[in-house]
Amino acid sequence: MTTTIATTSTPTPTPTPTPAATSAASVTRNTAQQVLTSLNSGSGIDTASLVTALVQAQFAAKNAAITARNTALTAQISTAATLKSTIGNFSTALTSLSNGGTLQTQPVSSNPSALGATAISGARVGNLTASVTVSALATAQTVRAAPVADRTATIATGKLTLTFGTAAYSSDGTAMTGFTANAGTPVSITVTDGSLDGIAGAINAAKAGVTASVITDTDGKAVLSLKGTTGTTQAFTLKADDSGSALSQFNTGYGTGGTTTTLTGIAANAQLTVDGVTVQRSSNTVTDLVAGVKLQLNAVSTTPVTLSSSRPTSALVQMVSDVVDTYNQVYASAKSATDPVNGDLKSDTAAKTMLRSLQTLTTRTLTSSGSDGAPTTLAQLGVATNRDGTLKVDTAILNKVIAAYPDEVEAMFATTSSNAIGLTSTINGISLAAASSVTGLGASTARYTKAQTDLTTEQAKITSASDTMSNRLTQQFSSMNSKVTAYKATQTFLENQIKAWYSDK
Cα(145)–Cα(162) distance, rounded to whole angstroms? Predict the structure, then answer.
């Protein structure tokens, strides 16, 4: 008895063809069909169609592969640019917001028309309390020369000497009654264009601290006006080196012999009283009297001006919320771009690095100073990470932390210049790394662009090869057609002869 053993073999899986392979196969099938149609019995050969079909069949796979690769590279370039722009916009917006001062405790003046107050970048002024009285503003010495009929007419050329120092003035401030030069070397000014405009230009070109301008008065004449810098030690004298020169008409100040210039303002310090202490400053902008505060002296105050501070609590809460919202948008873009299955940048190292940098944002230390227990990370402010990688903020925790550690929270969002590891600096760092033309998305874009250029070169070679093959086949089929035509003529002749033979019988 014969025993039959049935065996079952496991079928070999058929691989799913790639889009390029599918496209190539489709072109090949279409080409084969065209060839069969061209060779239809009794219809002759359509040489032009046949050559075109054969050439297409020969290069179909390569063309399809180049098209697919070019499409992928275009998508990669576009996605890389979008991702780089997204993180760049995040960085720019954050920098603008932190530099705007709305996230920093600001000093408040009870009389801003007399005394303005702003926080110095990076300073903590949360416990500010001060009393300031402005007794006098700092002023600069100003001088007016005698009018000149024509500002463009030559007066004289030569040299002027500008000397700075401390001056004594008459009680009405219209004359200089004494002058003590500073230790510095006087400034020599050479006048080569002797017009009034030229003299003013020479003084300004010296950039010594005196500004010259030419003003037209009500009579239409030109007047040279000189203005120095505020402060007692910034008084000045101007004297022509040649006493016989017409330039001496601009001599001004004690000991210069000037009689045609008029003193219209004196050099003096600002006088203030800060918390009962009388002080002087050479400028109306003062940064060294109240810690962390820049004072702007605008007018004399009849009563003391009180300085206090205003906490930006609501602005900080809104800031954290805005950062979380923007982060989620950037993160979604980066995650989609690097998706291991469908992401255009799934194999891009720079894009993956950017994503990892974003994922560690909540645990990064954003400030190195502060009291014990003070927050140093976004996570400690109530910013948590969802299971999908996006962020959320617990406003209850955030408000509680801000109330307990206002200065430390502010420091986390301080400007780049005042906190090198703050949130602004951190996002800027991620943005710069992403834009890098060496290791970032900038380098990736350059690489993809070069690859596209290489594809263009490769496509040009294929096109050239196609043209060569087309010309060769056209010549071959043309020769064949000529021979077939000759054969058919002979065939027709013989057929006619045979028919004639049979018809004679």
Answer: 15
Terminal alpha carbon distance of the chain: 75
Stronger pLDDT, 476 or 72, i.e. the higher one: 72
With cut-offs at 50, 70 and 90, classify the pLDDT of residue 251: very high
Name the one residue in this structure whose structure tokens are 């954290």.
320
The answer to whether residues 419 and 409 touch, using CB atoms and an 8 Å cutoff, is: no
Is the pTM of the predicted complex or chain greater than 0.70?
no
Q: For the chain, what is the radius of gyration of the CA atoms?
A: 44
Question: Phi/psi of residue 439, each to 5°?
Answer: -125, -5
- Cα distances from 485 to residues 216, 433, 472, 476, in angstroms, run 103, 72, 20, 14
Cβ-Cβ contacts under 8 Å for 108 (sequence gap 6 or more)? 117, 307, 308, 309, 310
Residue 36 dihedral angles phi and psi, to the nearest 5°: -60, -40
Instruction: Encode 285-299: b = buried (16+ Cβ within 10 Å), e = exposed.
Output: ebeebbebbbbebbe
Mean pLDDT of 388-413: 93
User: What percentage of the chain has pLDDT greater than the value 90?
Assistant: 65
The average confidence (pLDDT) of the chain is 87
Which domains occur in the chain, in start order? 20-37+46-72 (no CATH), 75-101+313-443 (no CATH), 106-138+270-310 (no CATH), 142-265 (2.60.40)
Distance in angstroms (rounded) separating the CA atoms of residues 408 and 414: 10
Closest alpha carbon to 225 in 197, 186, 244: 197
CA 269, CA 481: separation in Å to the nearest integer? 108
**pLDDT (average), residues 208-217:** 96
Q: What is the 3-state secondary structure (H, E, C) of 333-397?
A: HHHHHCCCCCCCCCCCHHHHHHHHHHHCHHHCCCCCCCCCCCCCCCHHHCEEECCCCCEEECHHH
Tell me: pLDDT of 336 over 50. yes
Q: What is the DSSP string of 129-194?
A: -EEEEEEE--B--EEEPPPBS-TTS----EEEEEEEEEEEE-TTSSSEEEEEE-SSPPEEEEE-S-
Expressed in percent and rounded to 5, the helix, strand and coil fractions of the chain are 45, 20, 35
Q: What is the mean pLDDT of residues 417-427?
A: 86
